[in-house]
Amino acid sequence: MELSGNFRKSSGSFDKDVWKVPHAVGSPRERDSVTVRVPGTSANLGCGFDCIGMALDIWNELTVERAPRFEILIEGEGEAVLPRDESNLVCKGVQVAFDAAGVKVPPLRYIMKNAVPFARGLGSSSAAIVSGIVAGLILCGHELPVEGEEALLQLAAEIEGHPDNVAPAVYGGLQIGCYSERWHTERVRVPHGLQCILFIPDFASETSSARAILPDKYDKKDCVFNLSRTALLVNSFSTGNLDSLRIACEDRMHQPYRSESNPHLYPLIEAAHDAGAHAAFLSGAGPSVMAFASGLKGDVFSQRQLERTDKLVAQAMLEAAASVGVKGRVFITSPTEKGAHVWAATPPFSETSVKQYGGGSWKEL
Fold first, then answer.
1. In Å, how far from its chain's centre is CA 224?
2. What local confidence, expressed as pLDDT, does residue 321 receive?
3. What is d(CA 60, CA 128) in angstroms, rounded to the nearest whole number?
4. pTM
């Protein structure tokens, strides 16, 4: 049975304020193993530097088991370079969860199946942190404060330093994050049928290096430029007016500076626009570039091939990258409204061990 950390209200929408570890009625139960899935994310979306992020339908799967000795097994993205010791961000996330419970971390076996590209601006570090925290909470049977606290977000953002990736990784969807004594986040509606076209270069980029090249101070005109476009971006998604996205995703705070180490950025943005994309921008700190597109008529799953622009945009981005000597791959996906969730656990959760928030109170399923 799939259990989601983003419990649904009776309205069917996710509620970020009611994340709670499923547990047996009465006292929380420790578990021997747990499997957690967390989505990749794209932050900034052009103008929304450090405050806006979107969950993508690309998933990392983490299984953590109690074991005789510490062990890490990695399959998929990053398997050749990710650390296999306690410095791995997944392990740090688990440590944070056990610290919150006041319990020592036992010997554990970590099995990581990664589909989120590593160090490519697609939220691999946030996926690792969030999956570790959720897995640790389930293993030790610890509950976090929920109503109005967003405690899971606080733990994850404290490690990551900002909420633009961790918020959509935890809650799914498009999230706006800000800090005022604690981290806050709010969901923004994503229009149905939106497609995300990713160009993922063969080279990696560390967020710390990409952040180091940014200026300490900005001209007021550039700040106003980004503020106005951030407001337009939120309005575009909320109203479904995708024609405004091209202007809304323009940026003066990070892309001009990061383009020096990403020579493919502006050629890909121009190529995506020419091929019919709504907008294109650097994903996170890069080096990946993401474009938004949708079909000419109806939902993407019911369109004829000629009515879809996603493959045209993907091909145009590949050709533009090749023209500047940058090798990479394209990946077409979509936003996901689902965030971090428990896929399986041992002992398994029974139907009566799960509580769902609805109508202002907790109810047994």
1. 27
2. 98
3. 8
4. 0.86
Cα(96)–Cα(148) distance, rounded to whole angstroms? 21
Helix%, strand%, coil% for the chain, nearest 5: 35, 25, 40
For the chain, give the percent of residues with pLDDT over 90.
Answer: 73
Tell me the Ramachandran region of residue 141: left when phi exceeds 0, alpha when psi lies from -120 to 50, beta otherwise: left
* Domains of the chain from N-terminus onward: 3-188+337-350 (3.30.230.10), 195-209+218-333 (3.30.70.890)
* Contact of 113 with 60, CB cutoff 8 Å: yes
Q: Are 93 and 99 contacting, i.e. CB atoms less than 8 angstroms apart?
A: no
Give the number of other CB atoms < 10 A from CB of residue 15. 17
Q: How far apart are CA 38 and CA 168, in angstroms?
A: 10
Distances (CA, A) of 347 to 23, 36, 135, 139, 340: 11, 15, 14, 10, 20
Helix, strand, or coil (residue 199): strand
Q: What angle do CA 254, 264, 322 make, to 5 degrees?
A: 170
Strand pairing category for 328-333 and 355-358 = unpaired
Tokens (6 digits) for 315: 């091909």
**Rounded distance, CA 283 to CA 89, Å?**
21
Answer for the pair 129, 207: CB distance below 8 angstroms, yes or no: no
Q: Which helix (H) or strand (E) holds 136?
A: helix 124-140
Backbone angles phi, psi at 153, to 5 degrees: -60, -40
Measure the CA–CA gap between 305 and 76, rounded to whole angstroms: 31
* pLDDT per residue as tens digits for the range 96-115: 999 999 999 999 999 999 99
Q: Looking at residue 150, what is its pLDDT?
A: 82
Burial class (CB in 10 A: 0-12, 13-18, 19+), 117: buried
CA pair distance 350, 73, nearest whole angstrom: 29
Low-confidence stretches of the chain (pLDDT beneath 50): 1-27, 147, 297, 351-365
Residue 151's pLDDT is 87
